Request: fold
Amino acid sequence: MSYPVLELKSLIKSFPQRELLRGVDFALEAGGSYVLTGDNGCGKTTLLRIVAGLEAADGGMLRFKGAAIDLGHYPEALRRELVYVHQQPYLFNTGIAHNIAYGLKMRGVPKRRRELLVEEAIAWAGVGHLGSVLPHKLSGGEKQRVALARAKVLNPGLLLLDEPTANLDNDARRQTLALIEALRHEDVTVMIASHDREIIAMPHVERLHLEAGRVRAL
Ligand SMILES: Nc1ncnc2c1ncn2[C@@H]1O[C@H](COP(=O)(O)OP(=O)(O)O)[C@@H](O)[C@H]1O
Ligand SMILES: [Mg+2]
Reply:
């Protein structure tokens, strides 16, 4: 039985010059994969950031695993469940394992368990060969894969990926697409803002389209 992990109702967000989100409603089923499409500047990043608790909404309701959340008072605990991966991920200037372990450490996961999870995540993302290479020496694609591993290892209730294949060369894009495809076999709900035709065309991915401040299923 699937159930909605996240429901958004009447989400609104304005900037001084612009009413960006004008009543966004949608529900995401647990374990589902969703792609959020829409023209540049229509508000995809803003929407993902609001859902992740990184930006305030002006109004609306969010329900996470059935519990109602007032978007005006975003609980800290929810921020840990909803993990946002930036289009150009920022990594700490230390080795890959340390980057991937950081969030687990912050969540109080014991060292041994942490090491095991980090090892699994490194293997999953295929970044083991990069060892202790520092982030400034990594390519955009390698950074993106480390960022995906770092997010996935937290086992989030909802994983939010912002244009994960934009700004990547073809090989790096292929590798990132393969990881996105592999997420289908994981017990994770994922929402991806993207224009990438291959992501949109993935058979298990449902499409949500943001236009004129509202979201509709396509
Ligand atoms: N902090 C901000 N202050 C004012 N306007 C903003 C701010 N953030 C975003 N916007 C406006 O929201 C629009 C949509 O941004 P964004 O969510 O990044 O869209 P998308 O990700 O779909 O390209 C921007 O073009 C800009 O006009
Ligand atoms: Mg964006």
